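Researcher: I'd like a structural prediction for the single chain below. Treat it as a standalone chain; there are no partners to consider.
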Amino acid sequence: MRQMILSFVMATMVACAPDEPSRQVTGYSEVEWVYVAAPGNGWLTEMAVQPGQRVNSGDLLFRLDDELQQAQVQQSEKRVEQARAKVSDLSLGARQQEIDTLRAQKREAQAALTLAAAEKDRWLALVEQRIASRSQGDKAEQEWQMAKAKLANIEAQIKVAELAARRNVLDAAEAERAAVEAEKRQADWQLGQRIVESKRAGRIEELIHHQGEWVNAGAPVLALLPDDGFKITFFVPEQLLADVAPGKVVQVSWSGQEKAQPAEIRFVANEAEYTPPIIFSNESRSKLVFRVEAKLQSEQRPAVGQPVDVLLP
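Model: Treating it as a single chain, here is the predicted structure.
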């Protein structure tokens, strides 16, 4: 009798135990589109791709008119040349031709000083002999002093000419050179922005603008489906949350595909949500589930938005 009661209780517990959630869930495929925009305003002068064309990272997508940017680059190049020449000139001192001219003037001033000294001595001797007046002697001495001062002035000019510019003047010229070189780099960058290349490998899905049209900065020009932008989205109940950690692999199957394809889980939501309407069923309508995203590991893929079945590990 006791054995019969025990068997009845165990059967009742099994019958009343909650059903284990199915390890196969429903999901769908979706993509993360990349909309390539124009970095600046301008005319679309070249469209280098067509819908359905595959591109790799670095491939040319389109060009914008660049006459203004070309002119800015040329202008900045001239300013850089001028600034560098100014720094070089200040660093080296005066040109050799200028120094040679000053040295020739020095020789003339030395000769003039020698003559003025001789004249001064002669007139002073005549003054002492009372043959010439004192004023004539004073005039000769004054001319000698002027010739002496002129020679000293030329010698000072030569000394300055042989030296580089003062440190503060040279520092200002070097700062000006650095500023125009930065403007040149900015102009080069602006010119480079008129050529738009793909940053990711994938397939051109749609051309939003065409050659000859005017596009605004930030306006999408084309839509790209990147190779790594395709994902499988599905939802799991809390009981199976531990089985869908990032890095684990699930098996994905869909209509038209004979063999299930592996997909690596990349994302698991932290917060639960009600089952989205796209995968409502009588069994899951009122359940709270967690969103999971996985990347297919093979080249075989379902159509965008196609329902899929996901077998959990």
